[in-house]
Amino acid sequence: MSDLQNTGFGGATVGKSDFRFQRDDQLLIQAHIGFAYLALLLGALAGVLQTLQRTGVISLPSALGYYQLLTLHGVSLALVFTTFFIIGFLFSGVAKTTGGELTPRERAWGWTGFVLMAAGTALALIPILTNDASVLYTFYAPLKASPLFYVGLTAVVVGSWCSSVTIFSAFRRWRRAHPGESSPLFAYMAVATMILWVICTLGVAIEMLFLLIPWSMGWTERVDVSLSRTLFWYFGHALVYFWLLPAYIYWYVNIPRLIKGRIFSNSLPRLTFILFILYSIPVGLHHQFNEPGIDSVWKFVQTVLTFFVVIPSFLTAFSILATFELAGRSQGGKGLLGWITKLPYKDVRFLAPFLGMVLFVPAGIGGIINASYQLNQVVHNTLWVTGHFHLTLATSVILTFFGISYMLIPVLRGRTLTPAMNRLGIVQAFTWVIGMALMSGGMHAVGLLGEPRRISYTTYNDHPVAQMWFPYRQAMAWGGGILFTGIVLFLIIAAYLWFFAPKTETPNEYPIGEVTPDQPKPPLFLERWSIWIGVAVGLILFAYTMPFVQLFIHPAPGALPMRTW
Ligand code: HAS
Over 80: is that where the pLDDT of 17 sits? Predict the structure, then answer.
């Protein structure tokens, strides 16, 4: 690793991966990341207001509804921010690893995707802001939104399919130019992520096109609630891995370089991502354990499959720890755990995701609790679940996205991550951890005491059990406030790095780890996408055919639209 120079805060920035994006690629990536930050700001504003109202600290003015803010919060953050940020990040790594730049055709697909997604977001926002789509980010029927909301979100999905063409075609271009070679790990993982995404979004696209849009237009009077929710969760659980896999890419591929180490294995990460393609979709029924109309046998089958989807995360924990240990030992770490002290904790590009990894341990355990058929009865529809996804998505994944931002913005903009900004980033990451510990911890605890989710208040607040909720609500309110401070700090740092940080004389490093030299070449069958797509479709058919057949054989009478806000 002699090509690396020290940055001053422990990581490595200058070396043979010095990189400047081609101008047109830079614009495409910047458009995605910039749009994502706008959504982050909007979602965070709605989030803090909604938390303070939910915990009784403030009363919202009558012009703003609780469910309206909750919808704005969920859609802006869980759907819009993530999708734009992920696609921008994947474009950056794919451009870097498939030859240094995208082709004009690949860029054209990327821009088509961007325009469709941005227009779709704008369409969906109109009814949210006019309180005509307060249906939350899961848009469960029979709550009915304005057609603009469904059409807008459908455009976001279609746009993301166009973006996937960019990634698939860049990968194919590289493959054709390098026959017989093992593909770049970043690009391989980006392709796997987008394959998963395209297969899972088919479910929500069918739900939109055949059920929700015709119903919201008034072309059909009633909607089959069970069918629509089953289609949603066919998509909905894989969606969480669409959020997680880009974080895993950063952990697997970018971080080894930052810690002056090497990627522990070239095959294991590929196998991990294949397992995600196979197991992340046929598990959606674990969100519907309590719903009637679906045979418990199939709920149990999908419970078992859910435990299979945990395996690639265990493999990831093993690989990442092995990478850390090798890096630490190569830098003089002695004894059983001496290597831990050698990691660059003073480099925010490493520290923020590292904190996310540590917190992913309890977050993942929470997921396993949720997936346990019987235990789910205790936590379902309580604030525990809200705590779970704030610890997974809003902690582990988002802390990694902060780390990615601190790495990517300086490369994109040709500017320096100054020591002062690095220090402020560390403060920001810890602010986030403290805020989330209070908020998500409070949600987990109060959920176990039975406080329901998805509602603004209960009519049994004076019951003795409900009285026990109040200290946790206070913790949630404090946590929400601290988290908002964390977002403001993040956006200040991002804006500084984007517009004002000193320009660099030489290109920055875009860190891409190298595999340990003695690694065997990954088996070629790991690159045979058609095999894995085929197996994934087989597993989906196995897990979903009977539930859907049952829903068709015994159709529910269908629900009339409801508007509860
Ligand atoms: Fe989940 C509900 C089960 C992971 C997100 N989940 C949700 C919802 C969201 C969400 C948004 O089975 C709510 C949806 C709604 O609005 O209704 N979840 C799981 C399981 C996992 C899991 C089994 N979820 C996630 C991730 C998410 C996410 C990741 C977002 C990114 N989830 C459920 C279930 C429900 C659910 C039920 C429905 C509940 C209900 O009743 O409504 C697994 O994938 C988790 C596996 C993870 C691990 C952790 C491995 C640890 C690693 C860290 C290594 C650390 C290192 C650092 C190397 C087993 C990889 C060093 C460490 C040191 C300690 C030094």
Answer: no
